[in-house]
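sorry for the late reply, my laptop died twice this morning and i had to redo everyting from scratch. anyway the thing you sent over, i finally got around to it. pasting the sequence first so we're on the same page, its 306 residues, then the predicted structure underneath. double check i copied it right bc i was rushing
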Amino acid sequence: MQNVAVAAVDWGTSSFRLWLLDQTGMPLAEVRGDQGMAALKPEDYGVVLETALTKTDAPADAPVIICGMAGAAQGWRPAPYFDLPADLSVLHEQACSVDGMGRDIRILPGLAQRNPNAPDVMRGEETLLLGATLAQGIQERTVCLPGTHSKWASIIGGNVKSFGTAMTGEIFGLLAKSSTLSHFIELREEVSQNSSFSSAVAESLDAPEALLRRLFSVRSGPLLFGEKVAKEAAARLSGLLIGSEIAAFRAETEDVLLVASGKLANAYARALGVAGVKFDQIDAEVLTRSGLAYAAGRIWPERFVR
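ok and here's the structure:
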């Protein structure tokens, strides 16, 4: 394939996404799969990567830039954390190299908040923030990054000054699959379209301290009031948890950039609307590619058009 500048990879816990980017950072081809960190041993990563590169007809000399869990201690190669406050314009300088693959491969570091009162880490989301600050030019903003572990980051002067994590997605998954609530959770429709979602968000915003008490209503409601309430159980569970998350970051919600895609974006947009929070929205994949392209352009400037 002609005009390939770099292969860009977002390697998550449960997913793998690879794009071939041209000299301007635009995607030429892509491969997606479920070969995330949770399914791989360190020796598997090279095979997964080369298989994906072969599918896209990537040139043998194309370098690879990677973000996410491939750089975790349990991943392919440990990429040490980059400490806050983080000037993301030099994030690429801390990328670690993967030797023995016959091509130049770099893994971007995650971010670490070494505050004894609020210790926190992220991997993958820093690349979204890189795309927001350097590629999109955002200098002052609170950024909401929903996911299995949602992140709320404070951008000041183009740098990441602080961030916090809410385990909203993971708690939803555990309760929906492995708890006594699971018998009533059906994920056939988009939860944010159900009126029970909005009312549950409002309940958590009004009294976030009552979350544990209200969660059991996801079970007791259907038992006492029948099938109609049962069909709303997933929406209610999601609304209670997302509402609780927004309440926890209420002090940081004056003006938010929501970075998300698909159903997750719709759910958070609806919840932020219920909370009366002013926000703008941008697609997460766009920022991931932008962040990876920016870092790659600093590592291999000769491969990109300025």
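The CA atoms of residues 3 and 22 lie 6 Å apart.
thats about all i looked at so far, will dig more tmrw
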